[in-house]
């Protein structure tokens, strides 16, 4: 079974005789701290002051001949899971024939398709958040091997392809828990992407007989200070009874202030009613490192009715209002 030993690979590159004999590899620290006060309604209605997330990591690169290696290692702490989790331990090899990514880190499907509508500081798909987004795609993934093609510039626009195999569950009978194919396009202020994921039936719950197919598409268009974005997720034979999710977002920037509004709508294969989520936020960027925000979110249905969906996924989700700040370095 394919498995990634990225941390060891990072260290071997940094300490190898070739690296020490040639140009020294770079390694720069980065991170962010997000704190907020949040009011949440429902049965557990309360006010909490929390460290929503603390991220700390390092990244760098090493170039030798025709290959440039990028490496990243980072971890996250949050009051909401009260632990330290490794979020990224990855290598990316860039060549004139394309790039190869190996390790764990931010999901490419999330970054290329879903991030365009996941625009808010509190209600977002980061694991540190209490409130769950409605789409099925996670923000991070483990054990990924991905090929990234060069970009092809044409008169009609710029194109790129990506393909990956993911083995996030090491104990099942599948050696390809998920297979991914992606096509990206951009021209001027317009960007679009088509994404396909196939999950092996052996990666599903016991007794699963059919593979799970997930199709997603995203697009965004920027006109001066206004950005319009949309994401569509369509599932077939999902492992948890989810059906489709539709999301739209609008961001307007005025000097140091960003106004953002988004809406997500989810359908289910079961008899659950459709569920919607509307979020509005205001961000004030006080310089490059510090951002203040105010944010409110409301679900269209009582999330308690969905508590049993997908392992109590919405157990802590409810209407909320947050005031907070993010410091980055």
Automatic annotation (TrEMBL):
Organism field: Ferrimonas sediminicola
Signal sequence range: 1-21
Keywords: Signal
Species lineage: Bacteria, Pseudomonadati, Pseudomonadota, Gammaproteobacteria, Alteromonadales
Keyword Signal: yes
Name of this protein: Outer membrane protein (Porin)
InterPro entries according to UniProt: Porin_dom_sf (IPR023614)
């Amino acid at each position: 079974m394919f498995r990634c030993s990225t941390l060891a690979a990072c260290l071997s590159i940094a300490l190898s005789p070739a690296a020490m004999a040639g140009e020294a590899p770079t390694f720069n620290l980065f991170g962010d701290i997000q704190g907020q006060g949040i009011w949440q309604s429902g049965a557990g209605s309360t006010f909490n002051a929390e460290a929503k997330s603390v991220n700390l990591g390092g990244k760098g690169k090493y170039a030798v001949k025709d290959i440039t290696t990028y490496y990243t290692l980072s971890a996250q702490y949050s009051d909401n899971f009260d632990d330290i989790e490794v979020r990224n331990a990855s290598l990316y090899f860039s060549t004139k024939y394309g790039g190869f990514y190996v390790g764990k880190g931010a999901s490419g499907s999330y970054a290329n398709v879903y991030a365009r509508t996941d625009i808010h500081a509190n209600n977002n798909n980061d694991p540190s958040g209490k409130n769950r987004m409605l789409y099925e795609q996670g923000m991070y993934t483990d054990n990924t091997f991905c090929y990234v093609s060069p970009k092809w510039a044409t008169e009609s626009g710029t194109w790129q392809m990506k393909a990956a195999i993911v083995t996030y569950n090491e104990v099942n009978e599948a050696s390809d828990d998920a297979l991914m194919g992606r096509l990206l396009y951009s021209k001027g202020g317009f960007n679009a992407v088509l994404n396909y994921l196939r999950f092996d039936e052996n990666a599903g719950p016991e007794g699963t007989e059919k593979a799970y197919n997930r199709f997603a598409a995203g697009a965004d268009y920027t006109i001066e200070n206004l950005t319009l974005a949309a994401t569509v997720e369509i599932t077939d034979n999902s492992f948890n009874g989810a059906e489709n999710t539709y999301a739209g977002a609008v961001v307007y920037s005025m000097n140091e202030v960003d106004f953002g509004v988004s809406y997500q709508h989810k359908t289910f294969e079961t008899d659950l009613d459709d569920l919607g989520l509307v979020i509005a936020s205001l961000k004030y960027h006080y310089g490059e490192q510090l951002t203040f925000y105010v944010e409110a979110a409301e679900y269209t249905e009582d999330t308690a009715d969905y508590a049993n969906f997908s392992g109590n996924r919405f157990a802590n989700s409810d209407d909320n209002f947050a005031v907070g700040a993010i410091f980055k370095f």
